[in-house]
Design a protein that fits this description.
By secondary structure, this protein is of the alpha/beta class. It is 48% helix and 13% strand. It is built from 22 helices and 15 strands. The strands form 5 sheets. Strands 7-8-9-5-10-11 form a 6-stranded mixed beta sheet, sandwiched between helices. A 3-stranded antiparallel beta sheet has the order 4-3-6, with helices on both faces. Helix 17 crosses helix 18. The longest helix has 34 residues. It is elongated, with a radius of gyration of 32 Å. The termini are far apart. It is a multi-pass membrane protein. This is ABC transporter domain-containing protein. InterPro entries: AAA+_ATPase, ABC2_TM, ABC_transporter-like_ATP-bd, ABC_transporter-like_CS, ABCG_dom, P-loop_NTPase, Plant_ABCG. One of its GO terms (molecular function) is ABC-type transporter activity.
Length: 673
């Protein structure tokens, strides 16, 4: 049966693979030179990437030791070529790509040599780019806006706005998106670009600086065969310009997409099954005893042959099939005994020895002030267009304020109004600010975009924190003033604009602080559902320990009073609002037929146990200081995560049966401010 012909081995022990690795096909703009051995090679000004005996391990929770994800893989990527990394799920494709790009997770350990043009040196900013599998894009922006804002962030200030705009539009046309320039990205609840178009927008953003080295993680994931070919054909055209080196991990390409690749790295369980010219892979499998049936997609045949995930089920249906593990070992042995394997090793050695071309100097990017301005403008536009960011919250706040105002409508100024005023102020300080967690899903989306852009060095962490604060301030002020005014005047709180201004200032400061708190949670807990739960839990504890439900003197000392009562902002919000409402006011009440007067200071000291040693303005200043501290803490947490990751990923281990010298090269660097 022809469809199962590849399942039988044709005496691989007697086959010697002697075909030569093909010469590098030079594209237009790459100068050819003839070597003494009559082989045609390319003299390029691009970047060659080599890796030799590369191991990557992760801790094994079952055994307590380490589990190898990559096992001594060796290979190279040259200018003007596309290297495809293929293999079944879990074979180590993305791990190899992340290792080459310096993006390994903090729990992994990496060992081996990764060299750029033969040097153990970190690539400068702008010379490499990484396109992730997930499209982390701002959904409310159009294609033109997304690429142009990114151009303003990445390109240097010496370029004019017109030049940056021209670069952005040229890049959009290069990826075939000229007909969708004014279409919004779209996402949940909003129709926009297709999956393939979003993938091309992500590529556009990363190639604005014209990087010499481009990493692509599953660029065709989730796309149909037509969209996959269109995306990859556009990518293939990139290597014809500026001698670009492209490395892509790809799962199972169609035959048309497979034909676009120059070299193929085939992995199985972290081991190299084949590395060489993509067009010679079929011959390698055939000579190893596993020929590809006629009219079958080569990539389908390769992956089916080396996939052992469903080995047991296949064996039950095909009794003549060899176990996948045995097939894989046969292919690996055939590869290691072939001349191709030796030529790959020689090629790595030759590139390293030659050191072909000096590394590019660091490209300039936008200044810190430009980054802050552009990020603020982009974030402001996103907040304006995203209904769920602030507008929906504003509507809910107005509805709650109307409900609060009608519930406590015109409570009067007699003694019986004291409890009502206190309850109303407590609700404003606690639950109106509590609802700021409604914007957490939008915070998470912002953090995803930030992580992608920051890892590729588009801008600094400080610029992001400052821009996020500046862009959100006008909306928070709007959300504070309108609902706050409705609740304040419908209730009939203390007259005087200065008292209303203080009340609004406290409400605004509390909302700004809660947003800062939620940004901290978003940087630690990226899942929006878990983040909402964590943020709500933190605020609930602060409300309980704020000194309203249990008076300060009645709070238990451990935890509730020390430290929660003093570090929670609700204490200062309650006391500031109470001082603003009651201080200097006298209330009249009747007792035994006689009218008596009670001073507001007495209510503050005895009823609510407010600390009178400092003024209400000191309470406001403390809240504002907490805002600054929380924003700084947000910045510090991001920097810690950013800086600790590469340190932890550099931990060494001893590979099985041999000692490996570690070389940690991170080709993706980011600007620091």
């Amino acid at each position: 049966m022809e469809n199962s012909a590849y399942l039988e081995t044709q005496s691989p022990q007697e086959v010697e693979i002697t075909f030569l690795a093909p010469t590098l096909q030079c594209h237009e703009g790459v100068r050819r030179t003839t070597c003494s051995n009559s082989e045609t090679k390319c003299n390029t000004n691009g970047l060659s990437l080599t890796w030799n005996d590369l191991w990557v391990t992760v801790p094994d929770g079952t055994t307590g030791g380490h589990r190898s994800i990559l096992q001594g893989v060796t290979g190279y990527a040259r200018p003007g070529e596309i290297l495809a990394i293929m293999g079944p799920s879990g074979c180590g494709k993305s791990t190899l790509l992340d290792a080459l790009a310096g993006r390994l997770d903090s729990k992994t350990s990496q060992n081996g040599d990764i060299l750029v043009n033969g040097f153990k040196k970190t690539l400068a900013y702008g010379t490499s780019a990484y396109v992730t599998q997930d499209e982390s894009l701002i959904q409310t922006l159009t294609v033109r806006e997304s690429v142009y804002y990114s151009a303003q962030l990445q390109l240097p200030d010496c370029m004019s706005k017109a030049e940056k705009k021209e670069r952005a539009e040229i890049t959009i046309r290069e990826m075939g998106l000229q007909d969708s320039m004014d279409t919004r990205i779209g996402g949940w609840g909003a129709k926009g670009l297709s999956g393939g178009q979003k993938r091309r927008v992500s590529i556009c953003i990363e190639i604005l600086t014209r990087p010499k080295l481009l990493f692509l993680d599953e660029p065709t994931s989730g796309l149909d065969s037509a969209a996959s070919y269109y995306v990859m054909s556009r990518i293939a055209k990139l290597d014809q310009h500026e001698e670009r080196t492209i490395i892509a991990s790809i799962h199972q390409p169609c035959s048309e997409v497979f034909g676009l690749f120059h070299n193929l790295c085939l992995l199985s369980s972290g081991r190299t099954v084949y590395f060489g010219n993509a067009s010679y892979a079929q011959e390698f499998f055939a000579l190893s005893g596993f020929p590809c049936p006629s009219f079958q997609n080569p990539s389908d045949h390769f992956l089916r042959t080396i996939n052992k995930d469903f080995d047991e089920d296949i064996e039950q249906g095909l009794s003549g099939r060899k176990p996948a593990e045995e097939v894989i070992n046969t292919l690996i042995d055939s590869y290691k005994s072939s001349s191709t394997y030796q030529e790959v090793s020689n090629g790595v050695t030759e590139i390293c020895k030659k050191g072909d071309g000096a590394l590019d100097k660091k490209k300039n990017h936008a200044s810190f002030s430009t980054q802050c301005f552009v990020l603020t403008r982009r974030s402001f536009m996103n907040m304006h267009r995203d209904l769920g960011y602030y507008w929906l919250r504003l509507a809910i706040y107005i509805a709650l304020s109307l409900g609060l105002g009608t519930l406590f409508n015109d409570i009067g100024s007699n003694y019986s109004s004291i409890q009502a005023r206190s309850s109303m102020l407590m609700f404003v300080a606690s639950f109106l600010t509590f609802m700021a967690i409604g914007g957490f899903p939008s915070f998470v989306e912002d953090m995803k975009v930030f992580e992608r852009e920051r890892l590729n060095g588009h801008y600094s962490t400080g610029a992001f924190v400052i821009a996020n604060t500046l862009s959100s301030t006008p909306y928070l002020l709007l959300v504070s003033v309108i609902p706050g005014a409705l609740a304040y005047y419908l209730t009939g709180l203390r007259e005087g604009f200065d008292h209303f201004a203080y009340y609004t200032s406290v409400l605004f400061s509390c909302m700004l602080l809660v947003e800062s708190l939620m940004m901290i949670v978003a940087s630690i807990v990226p899942n929006y559902l878990m983040g909402i739960i964590v943020g709500a839990g933190i605020q609930a504890f602060m409300v309980l320990g704020g000194g309203f439900f249990r008076l300060p003197n009645d709070l238990p000392d451990p935890f509730w009073k020390y430290p929660l009562y003093y570090i929670g902002f609700h204490k200062y919000a309650y006391q500031g609002l109470f001082k603003n409402e009651f201080e200097g006011v006298q209330y009249v009440y009747s007792e035994a037929g006689m009218e008596k007067v009670v001073d507001g200071g007495y209510i503050l000291r005895d009823t609510w146990q407010v600390e009178m040693a400092y003024s209400k303005w000191d309470d406001l200043e403390i809240i504002l200081a907490m805002v600054v501290i929380s924003r700084f803490l947000f910045f510090v947490i991001i920097k810690i995560v950013e800086n600790v990751k590469p340190v932890l990923s550099g931990l060494t281990f001893v590979a099985p049966k041999k000692q490996i010298t570690q070389v940690m090269v991170n080709p993706l660097t980011t600007p620091s401010h």
